[in-house]
Amino acid sequence: MIKVHQITKYFGAQRALHQVNVDVPEGSTLAIIGPSGCGKSTLLRIKMGLITPDKGEIHFGKDKLDKTNTDALRKRTGYVIQKGGLFPHMSARKNVTLAAQYFGWSESDISHKVNELSELVHISNNLLDKKPTQLSGGEAQRVSLMRALMLDPDYILMDEPLGSIDPLVRNEMQSELKEIFSKLSKTVVLVTHDLGEAAYLGDELLLMKEGGVVQRGSIKTILNKPANDFVSDFINAQRSLLHQVEQE
Amino acid sequence: MRGACISLILGLFLPIATMAQDNNKEVVIGSKLFTESVIIGEITNQLLIDNGYQTQYKSQLGGTRILWNALLEGEIDIYPDYTGTIIQEILNGQNIDSYQALNDALKPYQVQATKSLGFNNSYAIGVNKETATQSGLKTISDLAKHPDLKLGFSNEFLDRNDGWKGLSEAYNLPHQQVTGLDHDLAYRGLEAGNIDAIDLYSTDAEIQYYDLAVLEDDQGFFPDYQAIILYRMDIDESMVSLLESLEGSITESEMVALNAQVKLEGESDQQVAANFLDEKFSIKSEVVQSTVWSRLWINTLGHLYLVGISLTLAIVVAIPLGIAAVKNSWLEGPLLAFVGVLQTIPSLALLVFMIPLLGIGSLPAMAALFLYSLLPIVRNTHSGIKEIPASVQESAWALGLSNRFILRKIELPLAKPTILAGIKTSAVINVGTATLGALIGAEGYGQPILTGIRLDDTALILEGAIPAALMALLVQWSFDLYESKFTN
């Protein structure tokens, strides 16, 4: 369980988050959604300990995140960002195995885990020997996911993991991600701006606006009982144009 | 910060300095950066060698300040100078009217002087014969009537109390167009008509060669400049007697002739000094004429030594400094500003600043080169790491890796091309700047360049300039080759 308690963060005078409270139950997937600048990425980065909040606390299970245990908690958390953030000077394989080597895993444990993960994310062995620049966007995100899963973390935090992937591959990867989440049954927080993706991958949705939580619930609740006009507008804006064209 | 940096640099260099001093117990002779001083130094050197002394001759070191300070510091033991220079420049124009009075005044410095070697080499003002005739110039007083004349003086003359400063006051000279330039180049400027009047040493061989008119010092401004030899009081007494044996041994016309043999007839300083000693003292000294190739080899080694050590130390110090600048935001601004300021100190000034700390020779030159090499490497290390995309850095942190590990495995490898480019810039600048080290007695390609300028010998200048340029290109090429091979 990840518990976000009363988190407030300002960048100068700019409010990024204001008294945000979120619980993510063990083994479930929470999709955080909202327009650009609503604070969803900041919230994720605060959870990773990449940004220190002005006020409030983050708990991973029983552990409260602070300076002393940031590294240990990061080790228990996989993190995937929009363009992968792969280390450009290392092969894909080295990217995946670096942390395991750092933490002293044996070679056989490492290769065992790599095989297991490459099967899970559908990456072939010869792709792993390429440099990140030689990979397509989808391949790079698969490698990035492998890297995040390598240490077998309890938590997975993803910030627009499919944000820069072209639609066909994106569709394919959405269903793969769903499959992976259900196989691994880890606690996942996924940030996205795409309502469809959030609905498809998240057990629950959290809608944010201007640094605060607007509504939380299943996709059905949000569609049928929007908390306010903002939620309705956000939903309508995301309904496919194609759908409208068909109706006309 | 500044204090810390200076003590760091001293810490690096002082052990080498003391080591170097312990190793040579030989007597060290110095000379100034003009031919007459080099010849007298060479005569002294050969005389001492002939009498069984171990010597080291550091010729053409620079001006009075450098030589005098080197003498006080014990970097050199002996060097030739002139009474007027010492009285005006070092003893602040005290009223000294005898050699006894001079030695009494020098005693507190633990320095003594011989009596005159036999000639007076006074300053004088020279103009072309045509200019003299056209403008009716006979005396220095006549100069005041021609304020439009362009004057070109050696830099030391410009700054000295017994030089332009005092002269212009004594004669009320109104000239505005006064340029500082190297004495040996001044003759060329005069001949080419770029300047109208220059300062002369009265024993310069060129006065006759260029057929110059020497303006009479009608108010008797210039003091006597009797040639003498200064020595530290801690040298052997028998050595002092040898130096004293040179007293009265060279007349003014003989000195002009010796200067002419070197500057106009192209004899080597050593050969001219050897001939003189043979004639006057029946001393046969062997002059080994070095070949171009042997000189080239020695100068190349000397240059590589300067560049190699200073650059290596700079790399060892600058990369950690660059890293520290990225990691500590309070340090970033001040540190980058500090190494930037170091870079703006003119190289000559920096070289001279090093003398009180490290003496003369290759060591202070190395220290100056080290300081110059810092900026490009510090700056590139800093920017190389700073320019790594935030996403890469965050991904590394997110894996739970330690900062140290991230630096070693991710940041430094990614910044490597930028850091290498910084090292390349430093190396190329370093190879060029190292030639200036010769001004304070450092080895390397600067030596033939300096001698070439002194003797107006283009071939000799090229003997230093071409290999220095080639070395710079070679450095550039090897870095380019390395970059293209290993960074792709």
Describe the protein's topology.
The complex is a heterodimer of chains A (248) and B (488).
Chain A: E1 2-11, E2 14-24, E3 29-33, H1 40-47, E4 55-60, E5 63-64, H2 70-75, E6 77-80, H3 92-102, H4 107-120, H5 125-128, H6 137-149, E7 155-159, H7 167-184, E8 187-192, H8 195-201, E9 204-209, E10 212-217, H9 219-224, H10 229-238, H11 241-247
Parallel strand pairs in A: 3-8, 3-9, 6-7, 7-8
Antiparallel strand pairs in A: 1-2, 1-4, 4-5, 9-10
Chain B: H1 2-23, E1 27-30, H2 35-50, E2 55-58, H3 64-73, E3 78-82, H4 83-90, H5 99-106, E4 111-113, E5 123-128, H6 129-135, H7 140-143, E6 151-153, H8 155-159, H9 161-170, E7 178-180, H10 183-192, E8 197-201, H11 206-209, E9 212-215, E10 227-232, H12 237-244, H13 252-263, H14 269-281, H15 292-327, H16 329-344, H17 347-358, H18 362-386, H19 390-398, H20 403-433, H21 446-455, H22 458-486
Parallel strand pairs in B: 1-2, 6-7, 6-8
Antiparallel strand pairs in B: 3-10, 4-10, 5-8, 5-9
